[in-house]
């Protein structure tokens, strides 16, 4: 009996230990929404309270008091690169998002403290940016939601949506500066040992009319490694941006002397995309001359004539392409193009 009693005494503390909590649904579930702007990731993590028939604005969310912009722990907005809000540049990082609502305008607050619970420990001294915005009427939303509206290469509008209100918060991104810095960083890695990344980085700058001096140095480095059709055309584009049209034309002519059939074709279609029909036709004619057995060369030349509106020449070269093509799907497509020109 004494052994049994002792066993019960020893076991008692185990029986009285606290049970682990069960995992159950929460009243305001956690959510995350993201948007990429250029190379920049914009992300908001928040909890979603429901209206549940309550008066939200000026009631559940009082006017004139700092609000957590969600429920439970901090609403957190994160940026992978620097952004601008309300004229203030914020470095890449995580920020606690709070709002000061009124019956008219709201103040949106970006705090350096992103690990708080609600706004109970909010401290105005920790604000890194403040934005004054005007809410607008919106469709009814039962559970609070954040969306990224009207995204572009230059930014997006972060919108809080709840009840029948939308609170728009413009976020601006200097995408050109972000991409240029990213290219610099990438070219410090394995990319530096190959010509294509250098010319690719220079080409992006040329297309976006930015960082042209450094881009020229990148183009030159690519050409020193290996002179390629693409590399020569990239430098030509940069020379043209700098006003040296003659130098650009010389490099383009040189590029064509070492170009493959596919590269010449790519050049022609690039000109077509700019509605430079005569220049494109001249490029495609060169391809036909250099590759007289290629059905694709005739096909591309025919397409250029068709776009220019010269049906007779288009028919002539589509028929030449049809004589040489073997693939049944391409034969059918060319026959359809000829039918359209009748």
Structure description:
The protein is an alpha+beta fold and about 350 residues long. The protein folds into 3 domains: about 30-170, no CATH class; about 175-260, Tetratricopeptide repeat domain (Serine Threonine Protein Phosphatase 5, Tetratricopeptide repeat, Alpha Horseshoe); about 280-340, Serine Threonine Protein Phosphatase 5, Tetratricopeptide repeat (Alpha Horseshoe), CATH 1.25.40.10. The protein is about 45% helix and about 25% strand. The strands form 3 sheets. A 6-stranded antiparallel sheet has the order 1-2-3-6-7-8, with no helix packed on it. The chain has a two-stranded antiparallel sheet with strand order 4-5. The radius of gyration is 32 Å and the shape is elongated.
Gist of the model:
The protein has 342 residues and is α+β, with helices and mostly antiparallel strands. Helix content is 44%, strand content 24%. α8 (277-290) packs antiparallel against α9.
Secondary-structure blueprint of this entry?
Elements: H1 2-16, E1 30-37, E2 40-47, E3 75-79, E4 83-85, E5 88-90, E6 93-100, E7 106-111, E8 127-133, E9 136-152, E10 155-172, H2 175-186, H3 195-207, H4 212-225, H5 229-241, H6 245-257, H7 261-273, H8 277-290, H9 295-308, H10 311-324, H11 328-341
Antiparallel strand pairs: 1-2, 2-3, 3-6, 4-5, 6-7, 7-8, 9-10
